[in-house]
Request: fold
Amino acid sequence: MTTRMEEVRSELGALNESAPTAQELMRLMVKFLHDKMLKYNWVGFYMLEPGAHPPVLVLGAFEGAMTPHTRIPLNQGICGAAASSGQTVVVDDVSKDSRYLACSLETKSEIVVPVFAHGKVVGELDIDSHFPAAFSADDQAFVQYCALLVGKKLETAGT
Reply:
């Protein structure tokens, strides 16, 4: 992992320690990632709506341009795919992925990482980039670390 990524990871650890709730951590984290990571042009959390049938992801804290996709059913989009499978989804070229729900003409690549709490998917961290193939293996590990921090905060501090 690069020194820069290690520095950012360390700063995130400090944010995690200072945030009293998961909601506050998510709010701080999206701003931090959007500001610090130059290729992260849209950063947001979608959380599963409790008790919704069928299950739906609801937009939470985000930084970047407004999106028309504030509610996403689990059977739609890259976000729905990640939440349904419980697996990270990295798309190097969104124009070549039929699951992509277009939010911005500028978006070229996307990563979506599920957030787990108590062993279940409760939401996800979604990041779009204006650059093709923006998310390296280091980025994937880093974004998964971010999602892990939020999941642990949900388990210990609640919303």
